[in-house]
Specification:
The complex is a heterodimer of chains A (332) and B (119). In chain A, 43% of the residues lie in helices and 16% in strands. With 332 residues, chain A is an alpha+beta fold. Chain A has a five-stranded antiparallel sheet with strand order 1-2-3-5-4, sandwiched between helices. Chain B has helices at residues 7-25, 28-65, 73-81, 88-109. Chain B is elongated. The chains are: A alpha+beta (332), B mainly alpha (119). At the A-B interface, α6, α10 and α11 of A face α2, α3 and α4 of B.
Amino acid sequence: MAGDAHSVALGAWLSEQRGGQVTVEDLEPVSAGARRFNALFTEVDDGVRERLALTMIPTAAIQLLSVADEAAVRTLAEQAGVPVPRVRHVCVDEGVLGGPFFISTAIDGETVPRRVLRLVASAGGDLGPTIVAQIGTALARLHSIDAGLAPAALRPESGNPPIAEALAQVDLGLSELLAPSPAFAFCARWLERHAPDEPSRPSIVHSDVRNGNIIVGDDGLRAILDWEGSRLGDPAEDPAWTAQRMWRFREDHLTVGGLGSFDTLRDAYVAAGGDWDADRVRWWRVLTTVRWGLGMAGQSRSHLDGSFPSIVMAASARRMAELEFDALQLLR
Amino acid sequence: MHQPPSATDLLRTVAATIADEIVPALDGPAQHRARVAASIVEIVTREIDLGPAVREAEVAALRAIAGGGDADPAAVAAALRAGAADDPAEHDRVLELLVAIARGDLSIAKPGYDEWDGD
């Protein structure tokens, strides 16, 4: 995405929305993943300058959730007291920038995990546990939202309830492996035998809250990012996912993102009104570990079959042993 | 017969060159891909060095899981998925053997990752 042409196009679109002359300056790409383009820019509206964030989905076909639905979820989360960048504009017209996009407020702070950990280390004191507690509070608030308000697209296409859906995905992933995994087959059996009851009340689940999808500053958690994976599910999935070893960046003793303990997360979650069932959370820790490992194998398959040739994708399957090891350790 | 350096010595040199000289000269996505490339070369080098012994140990562990029977990983996986290790004592025994297999793979793919006993 070339900066100048898009600055002009974005400025013209914003001018049309506001009915005035708006210009876009200093468009600065911050990350360009396979699925989305993120940039910061300065909006100048009648002399008033404001830094904003642009999220554009380059190809409408590969979005997990439409920009309109993602924006709706973020607004619901914000109303429930979850820190999110406030959505200012949504554009579903792919003709403006080459894909649907939304614009939100830009929030200062660190997002790159190692920089987050460096900030926490240099701040000293309780910044890490403070962030973990704030994540726990935010998750409880997110899960308290009336699921009836959620956009229809958040319901799984299969119509399966969350536990059955997750188990079916594991078996599908096992069947797609190019080489068998006795470890994950063993875990799949354990998951099936220990499956909790379907949640009495489905909740909006973010599904990817972790060190890497948060903005933090020296005052703690400022925002939770990347809501494209939101769906209705079992709320226990979210706290479980925060505890993946992969998000600790070698700070293995600090279960939640290398920042703080699982007890800190739980205490804050419960204090904010969340239900915490330790067995259910553990089950989701195993499930999400296995699912991520199967996903790693899937990435390498998409390299091999030519649908997404990339050295990064090619390398992914060699990471599956990490997830096999972690999942087995959780079953001790 | 080639004079040394050996194939793995050459691969180690390739990995070091990418990591120490090429990665710092790049930025952005290309730098990330170069880092991944160095990592892959390191993994493949270890696979050449350690692979045969790791596979031999894996076959022995799979045979032990199968109770001295077929060590075919697909057959073992299918049996485990169907509940062959449901009994608590058998669960514990098989778990240790599967952890040993994962440790073998990690000695190639990510040495040191197995220094963790769970939370």
